[in-house]
Every structure is written in C-alpha cells, then in structure tokens.
Amino acid sequence: MKNFILCVFLISTIFQANGQKFEKPNIIIIVSDDQGWGDLGYNGNLTVATPSIDKIAKNGVSFQHFYVSPVCSPTRAELLTGRYHVRGGISGTATGRVRLDLDETTIAQIFKKAGYSTAAYGKWHNGGQAPYHPNSRGFDDFYGFCSGHWGNYFNPILEHNGEITKGKGFITDDLTNHAIEFMGQHAKSPFFLYLPLNTPHSPMQVPEENWTKYKNIELSQKGTIASKENILHTKAALAMTENIDWNVGRLMKRLDQLKLTKNTIVLYFSDNGPNGHRWNGGMKGIKGTTDEGGVRSPLLMQWPAKFKGGTQIKSITSVMDLLPTLADLAEIPFTSQKPLDGTSLKPILMGNQTSEDSDRFIVSYWNKQISVRSQNFRLSADGALYNLVDDYAQTTNVATTFSADYQKLLQVKNTWESDVLTELPKEDNRPLIIGHPGLPITQLPVSEGFGHGNIKRSNQHPNDSHMTNWLSKEDFISWEVALEQEGDFEISLYYACSKENVGTALSMSFGDSVVTGKITKENNVPLFGMEYDLVPREESYMKDFRPLNLGSVHLKAGSGTLKVFSNSLLKASDLDVKLVTLRRLNSPKMN
What we know:
Elements: E1 14-17, E2 20-23, E3 26-32, H1 51-59, E4 61-67, H2 72-81, H3 107-113, E5 117-123, E6 141-145, E7 157-160, E8 163-166, H4 171-185, E9 191-196, H5 208-211, H6 231-257, E10 264-270, H7 292-295, E11 296-302, E12 311-318, H8 322-329, H9 346-349, E13 362-366, E14 369-373, E15 377-379, E16 385-387, H10 403-419, E17 432-434, E18 441-445, E19 450-452, E20 456-457, E21 467-468, E22 476-483, E23 487-496, E24 505-510, E25 513-518, E26 546-555, E27 558-565, E28 576-584
Parallel strand pairs: 3-9, 3-10, 4-12, 5-6, 5-9, 17-22
Antiparallel strand pairs: 1-2, 4-11, 6-7, 7-8, 10-11, 13-14, 14-15, 15-16, 18-28, 19-22, 20-21, 22-27, 23-26, 23-28, 24-25, 24-27
C-alpha cells in the first residue's frame, strides 16, 4: 500500500512568485459532530435548509468521496496529524484513551511556526491536560471543552485556556461568536481557525426558533434501514443542522465585512457518519461502523482567489490529506518527522491533476472492524467486496466477479494490520499529567478517573458523567497521574450534596502528601438537561457542581495514584463529585 511521505513545502509569510507578492491565506476549518453526508441540502436532503453551507460548495470545491473515521476522536487526531489515528495512540473516545501522543506534530503547530495566529473553539477530544491540551498543541487560544461530549448546550460550563468559565447562550452560537471575534482581532495577519462544533451530537438540544419548523413536518426521505429510524431524533438532528448553517452564514458574512473572503480557505466537513438511521443517500452504515455511511463525509472547500467555483472532485480522499494539502496551499515548509498517511490534494484543487487515482486505498478502523476503500470498491469488515459505483447500500458481494480487486484489497488490509495497527498498544498505560507548565491549572474530571467501593459513574458513557453512590468512608475516587516538577498546589473539588453533609471532610492525596477541607455549604441541586432534550438521551444528565477549596499542598514529583476520599462522610449516597483541579502556586521551570 502506498505511503505518502511529505518532506518540505515552502517558506515565509510572503514570498515572490513570478515577480508578484503572495500573501499567506487564512485558514478556517469547520467540523460538525455526528452529521451525516446526507444531512445537507447540497447532497440532496429535501427537508433541511443549508444555504450557507451549500454556498461554500457553489463558490468552491466539493469532494464527492471524502472519508473520515467512524467516531469522533480518531477523526480529529487524523486531521491534526495527517496520520492514521492508531499511530498517534488514539484507542478510544473516553477515559484518557483519546490523547494524541506527544511526539506527534499537529497542523496547528506547523501553522503557528509559520507565523499564523491560531485558535480552536469547540470540542477538542484529544487530551484534556497539558501537554495534551490544545494550548500545548499549537493553539494560542482555546474556548470550549476537551471531553468527548457535553451534557448541556445552553449556558454550559466550558473552559477558556484551561480556566473554567460559563458559556453564553446556545453553545454553537457561542463558539461561533468567539470565532468571529478572533477573525476581527487578527484580520491584518494570517490566522488559522479551527471550529470543531459539537452538534448534532446528542443530547438533542436546539434553540426553539430552529425547532419550530420541524415539530409537525413530514419527512419524505427515510433511512437506509427505515425500521430503525427514530423520526423525532432525525428531526432534531436536522434542526441542529439548520442552526449550524445559520452560524456558518454569520461567520462567512463577517469574512466579507473584513474583506478577507477572497484569500481565506474555508473547509467544512463532519467527523463521522450520522448518529442515527436517517436518510444518507442510501448508504449502508451509520456512526461507529466502517461501512460507507459510517465514514463518508461531505467536504466543501472554498478559496475564491484560487479555486474554481462549482468544482466536483470524485477521487477518494481522506481527512489525513488536509494537513499536507493546507500546508502545500499556504506554501508553508515543514519536515515530517514521521511518515504521513495523507497526501497533498493541491494538484487536484489547482486543476493540474484530473484523473482519479486508481491505486489509492483508504483504510477505516474502529472497534476491531477494518474496511478498505478503493476508488470503486469497499472491502467490508466482514470480508465481503462491494462495487460502490452502483451499490452504496452494500447489498451484493462481488468478490467472485472481481476476484483480482478482492485479492488486492485483502492484501492492503493484511499489510495495514501488520504495519499500522501493531503501532497501537494493547493497553493504554499512560498516566494523566498534572502540574505541567503549559497550563496553570490541571483539570481531572471523574470521567478519566475510577470509582472504588460503591462509587460509580452516573452513566455508562463516561464523558459528561459524574461520580455518585458514595456510601461509606471506604469508598474513594482515583486517577493514575504523573508530576514532573514538584511544587505547591491549590486543590479544588466540584461537589453536590444536601445540608446533611455540611461538615463532611474531603481529602486528596498523592504520594505522602494529603490536603483536607470541609464542606461548609450545601449544594443540593437537581439533575437537569431533560427540560431541553427533544429526544430522551443515553448520556448522563447534569448538575451545577460547586467548587470546594481543600487548601494548598506541596506535591513531590513522581508517578502514582491520586485519590479523593473521606474519613467522615456524614450521610451516605448524598455526595456527588464531578471534577478535581490543581492550580500551581509557584512558577515551574520551563524546559
């Protein structure tokens, strides 16, 4: 199988070509979450209205066969690195397995080194503590959340460069507001803006003005497996898509006002297939599968200064192509210390290559499923071969009819398993990093920890869950962590309990150090979120957790178990915990 190894592109912020100045283009990457290929009007959805997104295709280029991973964090890692996610240590979507290995170079680091101002607003999902945090991976400014999903989309608790803050309004609107502000602040110099939105991922919450249209509407298009479609869920996803489109329109309007449209490259795609059995062009598979519908995403790309509007590209392409492509288009030099799996699409985009690459193969992997896509065929995870020229639903196995193609794709799969998949460790034993100089505060959410004794998560899906069912002083919560530089830290714990637990002492320990504080105020708050949900959720509901300052403590460097426990629990099954934070009080040494 081909490996595309890229070495060097070009050089300064402005260079001379044919005697003319070339100004570096701005870059805007918009990524939706759990939105299917078929959720856009441009791709034939007859119900949804997406004029702003469709306009990007009209004014730019649309890729007809663009592939991402089956789920969130792998796709984001492949965008950041141009490499298969398993090479970068991504083995899951929660509990620390989303962290991108520190020896990987990100697209943001490349553009920042080239003089770009960089920002990310939204869902990160590739590591929550420095040096895995976005501020440590090339982004000057970050506003959003590092977890896989969030349980409330209205005025949610988020973070800004590591500091906990409260969002304003509906989350997609809020993230777009930050993006618009960033563009205005950096209008006179090149910027790299990453806008990874978190809708239409569940919970299915959307502003009323977007939902009104869908309350009583009849859907004329059905999912590939119509019997599995949840009509209410589909309507909610399409309403959330229309909200995204409105925000894309606002962003594009601001580009026009700043007179930046002509020299800004705008990309729009989704991180995986749809999160439900809704209409998706007749393709088999949804999010989480390696079938066509689980990994095919829209990709729209606009650059008025260079791209011909209305261009359609039929060659198979991958999210891993975007790093080398954007660096190539912006004429930015970088040396890849590791071989890239993506290839620059610049020749196709600039009209210098029109033929489809019949020798290219794209491998999709998740949860022990491996599927291989060539220009015309897909070898599915169960070993069947499908001709996707006329069988997107993958109904007819043509392995016998096209035996040569079948054997070739089998060979690609076997080679990928032995050469690539073996790079992923069987177990992720990396500790969580605390006290790193990249951020003054370390957040340890319980979603990345472990409950012991009776303590359990509020939901089987860890990302937005909290710890509950604290019954006795033998129960505790733990995280496996590592501290490189000793120092003094202020410890806070986010909790909920009734007045009957006022006076309960809570402690945090690491190594020989222990700090203890007492609950002095009740925080008897209810679960919330259901009042906004249009469809019953699978994930945890939320609470308004209150911070409790446990005090300051000196921690020695080393690796081990960080624990939260209580030797004086006053009432059982009344104390819930969401998060522990460690704020460094002394200045660490920078390496």
